[in-house]
Amino acid sequence: MRLALRSDVSATDGDLDMVLLHECTGRYWYLNATGAFILRLFLNGSERTEIARSMADRFPVSVEEASEDIEKLVSSLCTADLVRVKA
Which residues contact 82 (CB under 8 A, 6 or more apart)? Predict the structure, then answer.
């Protein structure tokens, strides 16, 4: 699975975090360092399993915990209509 920002969503990178703006609704979404790390990897073409391994290497979590966090973030981003899933 790959993710892409919807065309009406813009992203602003901080040092570690990220802010997304849904231009149609005017709502802002803040991603902390972990959420921004996950989204950046997805946007750069990484697969979910690669991202989980990268998270386990970088943060004090297991691959299983990372996979759960990734699933929660992707679900939230999809529900908020901020990303689209690319096959």
Answer: 5, 6, 9, 20, 22, 29
